[in-house]
C-alpha cells in the first residue's frame, strides 16, 4: 500500500516520508534521489491499544518499552509508538501533545529502534570529519560521560575547520567497511551557551524543555555525505594531572561501543541478542577506540583536540 504524504527528508542516509514536519532535517527534494521510493514512513495511527497489548503480553508494561529486531514499541508521557520492519514508525500523541512536542521521541528512540531493525547502530555521540568530500579521511565519533566535555571538544574541532555529521546520535553500519551516516545540520546547545554566543533565540529551534536546549544551525560546517569510520574517542573526567590517552582492546573495545548505543539507557534482553552483539563486534573490530582521561576543573580542550587530530 502506498501511503500519501507530502514531506520528504534525508536522515542517516535514508529517505523519510513523513506526516510530521521536521524543521531540522534536510529536505529530500534537494537530493537527486528524492523521486525514489522512500525507505522509511512516519505517520499518525491509532496505536495506543496495540502498544499496551504488546507490552502486556511481553511482560514489559511496567518498563513501558519492548525492543526487537523486527518489531518495537514504547509509550511515554507524550504518546504511543510502534516501530516495525525497519520501515515504519506509527505514533499516537496523548492529549496535550502534538507533532512538534513528540518529534524528539520520533527522531530519538523511535529512529534508533528502526535503525537497529535495519542492522544499523545508533550511537550516542558527536561525529566529526576532517573533509566533507574525501571519505577516505574518515569520521571520528566523540562520546563521553555527562559533563566530560564532548560538546566543548566538538565546538573546538569545528572552530579548527572540522565538519560535523551528527551532534547527538550517529548512525553506524558495517558492511564491507564501517560507515557513518549524517544526521542533520544543527547542533544542540543549552541556553547559557546560546546566550554566551549572542545568538538570536527567536531564530533558533527550541527543543527538549526538560533540558532547556536549542538547535543551532551549523551551516557549511555540515557534512551530508557518509564517511568511513576512523575511530572513537571516549572522554572521562579522572584523577589525573594532565590529559592521558589509552587505546582500548578486546572486551573493553566492544563494551565502549555497546554501552554507547543510544538505546543503552533502555536496558533489557535485547542488548544480549546474538545479532545485536554481532553488530557491535563488527563495528568494534574495525574501529579503534581511545579512552581520553582529563583532569577535573581544568580547561584541557586544546590538549584533547590536539590528541584527537592525531588519532589513527
Q: Briefly, what is this?
A:
By secondary structure, the chain is an alpha+beta fold.
Helical content stands at 10-25%
Element order: H for helix, E for strand: EEEEHEEEEHEEEHEEEEHEEEEHHEH
Largest sheet: 9 strands, mixed
Quote the beta fraction: 25-35%
Q: How is the secondary structure organized here?
A:
Elements: E1 7-11, E2 14-18, E3 26-27, E4 40-44, H1 48-57, E5 65-66, E6 71-75, E7 79-84, E8 88-93, H2 99-117, E9 121-124, E10 126-129, E11 139-144, H3 150-159, E12 163-166, E13 169-174, E14 178-181, E15 186-190, H4 191-196, E16 205-207, E17 213-217, E18 227-238, E19 244-247, H5 250-258, H6 274-285, E20 289-295, H7 301-309
Parallel strand pairs: 2-4, 4-8, 11-18, 18-20
Antiparallel strand pairs: 1-2, 1-3, 5-6, 6-7, 7-8, 9-13, 10-11, 10-12, 13-14, 14-18, 15-17, 16-17, 19-20
Report on the structure:
This protein has 312 residues and is α+β, with helices and mostly antiparallel strands. Helices cover 24% and strands 32% of the residues. It has helices at 48-57, 99-117, 150-159, 191-196, 250-258, 274-285, 301-309; strands at residues 7-11, 14-18, 26-27, 40-44, 65-66, 71-75, 79-84, 88-93, 121-124, 126-129, 139-144, 163-166, 169-174, 178-181, 186-190, 205-207, 213-217, 227-238, 244-247, 289-295. Strands 9, 10, 11, 12, 13, 14, 18, 19 and 20 form a nine-stranded mixed sheet that branches. Strands 3-1-2-4-8-7-6-5 form an eight-stranded mixed sheet, sandwiched between helices. A hairpin with a 3-residue loop joins strand 7 and strand 8 (88-93).
